Amino acid sequence: KQEVTQIPAALSVPEGENLVLNCSFTDSAIYNLQWFRQDPGKGLTSLLLIQSSQREQTSGRLNASLDKSSGRSTLYIAASQPGDSATYLCAVTGTASKLTFGTGTRLQVTL
Amino acid sequence: SAVISQKPSRDICQRGTSLTIQCQVDSQVTMMFWYRQQPGQSLTLIATANQGSEATYESGFVIDKFPISRPNLTFSTLTVSNMSPEDSSIYLCSVDPGTSYQETQYFGPGTRLLVL
């Protein structure tokens, strides 16, 4: 059974700092890995999707890497802003398009 | 992309009652899913809603408790039956656009359920 873990569970940083969120998964037989953002009271917003054959994806200040063989992914956020405050979830896609979500990292960016 | 709406957005229910949640997509999709997010927890897949056949449930979830309908390619319902306070969660539907894992799944805004 696939298990996805995220470290740290919570993180508070001052505005402008660069930060890294970590995600690990136990079964490397995945089709892709996705990073989502969840704001309180709202649904999920997709940030980045990395195919299993890819090593990284970039979107603006966000960069996600994938090491499938070791079961790890990182989300790098550059020059953090208060608007980045949210819960970040990673999820891996297995057979039949089923997503297994990680435990989440709650990020707070302070002024 | 796909735009998903859910009804109701939130509800407060008494234990022992049932609630049906609706999920509407703005385009035809093959695969629809229902997830549960318990307070302070991550998302857990309940079932895959199959059009024209019974839903496929994940371990720990049963049809009697979470009956699902999928009458067509744009609509699905999830019923939470005989509710208890432990059913208080956010319920989300999602769709897979079916582009061979190259595109993200899209999620509805969720239904916040509180059972008293």
Tell me what you see in this structure:
The complex is a heterodimer of chains A (111) and B (116). Chain A is an all-beta fold. Helix content of chain A is 0%, strand content 58%. Chain A contains no helices and 11 strands. Chain A has strands at 4-7, 10-14, 19-25, 32-38, 44-51, 56-59, 62-67, 72-77, 86-93, 99-101, 105-110. Chain A is globular and about 40 Å long. Chain A starts with a strand and ends with a strand. The mean pLDDT of chain A is 95. Chain B is an all-beta fold and 116 residues long. Helices cover 0% and strands 49% of the residues of chain B. Chain B is built from no helices and 11 strands. In chain B, the strands form 2 sheets. In chain B, strands 2, 4, 5, 6, 9, 10 and 11 form a 7-stranded mixed β-sheet that branches. Chain B has a 4-stranded antiparallel β-sheet with strand order 1-3-8-7, with no helix packed on it. In chain B, β5 and β6 form a beta hairpin. At the A-B interface, β4, β5, β9 and β10 of A face β4, β5, β9 and β10 of B.
